[in-house]
Amino acid sequence: MREEPVMLTEAELDLEHHRAHEFTPARRVYAWIRYPSQAYLVQANATAWTATAIRIWFFEPKVRIHREGWVWRNAVTPAPPTEE
Predict the structure, then answer these.
(1) Is the distance from CB of 13 to CB of 50 less than 8 angstroms?
(2) Which residue, 2, 3, 50, 54, shows the most beta carbons closer than 10 Å to its own?
(3) Are 45 and 57 in contact (CB under 8 A)?
(4) Is residue 11's pLDDT more than 80?
(5) Separation of alpha carbons 84 and 82, rounded Å
(6) Cα–Cα distance for residue pair 45/11, rounded to 1 Å
(7) Mean pLDDT value across residues 61-69
(8) What is the DSSP code (8-state) at residue 8?
(9) What CATH class is the domain 10-83?
(10) What is the top-level taxon of the source organism (predicted)?
(11) What was the pLDDT predicted at 20?
């Protein structure tokens, strides 16, 4: 059985109190992704943000699929301009 990344829940995201804003265009970032057994730093695209969270889109090479979800804002670091 493969592990799924653990993203923020609707309760943690709390869009009722923290409105989402779209990044146009998306921004290249590094984000910590949690799995039940381990955490990984992945290169991702930030597609939206709130006061507390960032929505990211990233490629998961082990299962060869793209994933999207919300992570805590402090789990995300902008990529250097040379990588944009």
Answers:
(1) yes
(2) 54
(3) yes
(4) yes
(5) 6
(6) 23
(7) 88
(8) P
(9) mainly beta
(10) Bacteria
(11) 96
Sign of CA dihedral 3, 74, 9, 49: negative
CA–CA separation, 27 vs 8, rounded Å? Answer: 20
Radius of gyration of the chain (CA): 13
Residue 65 predicted with pLDDT over 80 = yes
Give the model's pLDDT for residue 61. 73
| 9 pLDDT more than 70 | yes
Count Cβ atoms below 10 Å from residue 38 Cβ, excluding itself: 8
- How is the chain split into domains, by residue range? 10-83
Each residue's pLDDT tens digit, 16-56 = 999 999 999 999 999 999 988 889 999 999 999 999 999 99
Cα dihedral 60, 65, 66, 71 in deg (nearest 10): -50
Question: Please, are residues 7 and 72 in contact by the beta-carbon 8 Å criterion?
Answer: no
Nearest to 56 by CA among 17, 14, 13, 16: 13
